[in-house]
Amino acid sequence: MGSEVIEPQSIRNVTVVGDPDATTRVVHRLLRDLTRTGTGVSGTVRWTTDRTEHMIRIAELSSRAPIATLERSIRVADGLIAVMDATAKRDPRLETALRIADDHQVARLCLVTGLDHPTAGFGHCVRTVADTHGAVPLALQIPHGLGTEFEGAVDLISMGESEPVAAGLAGNHRRAAEQWYRHLVDTVMDEHAAATPGVPGPSKIPAGRLHHRIRYLTHIGDIAPVLCDTTLRSHIAPLLDAIVRYLPSPLHVCQPEHALDY
């Protein structure tokens, strides 16, 4: 029986860290209804983004684990997904995990959950990332409403590229989305590319160019992309696409202790 040849560039080794109940739910959703191997709350999924199939290896890490365990597990991770609770004002252990990731230059994404709860807040999750030294939080999605009015997420890159998507937002939602998109472009693009003389606000940047800049800045630890958890209302595809687009393959991880397998 022959063994399958896998291109290392197509591999993503991802550790999901946060409150154990939240991380278990996220990992189960990542594995649910997709081709997978593994048992419990770790395994492998195949996912195609931008016409290329990737292998995503997923492991779970509780932020309640002893500090030594957090340190050891994060240090050898290729990429991290920090699961944040929109209803919690502070989570010191998750903040510790983010600082460890910064200390060891581990690329990370942040996933905000609980946006449909009455006490949910999105801005304080973004500020939590900003208050930990290192990466600048970069919202790629913002919630469309909060609490009982939560209707899903607005994808800022799609909105910036497609006028029909932007036209689907009205009033305060559209103004807020445009402000967040302007911040995204200003953060990842240089001054010349972000603005066009005589045109108010940022230029419309092609999605592929933004993906490239976000990937580069995530790899070097300058930014931490932030997404909204909408899997109760839609598919987990946006998170899987973000994992593939922005987190590094084993070949792009600098630390010598990293390997192709856990």
From TrEMBL:
InterPro entries: P-loop_NTPase, T_Tr_GTP-bd_dom. Signal peptide: none annotated. Pfam families: GTP_EFTU (PF00009). Transmembrane segments: none annotated. Residues 69-249 form the Tr-type G domain. Keywords: GTP-binding, Nucleotide-binding, Protein biosynthesis. This is GTP-binding protein. The lineage of its organism: Bacteria, Bacillati, Actinomycetota, Actinomycetes, Mycobacteriales.
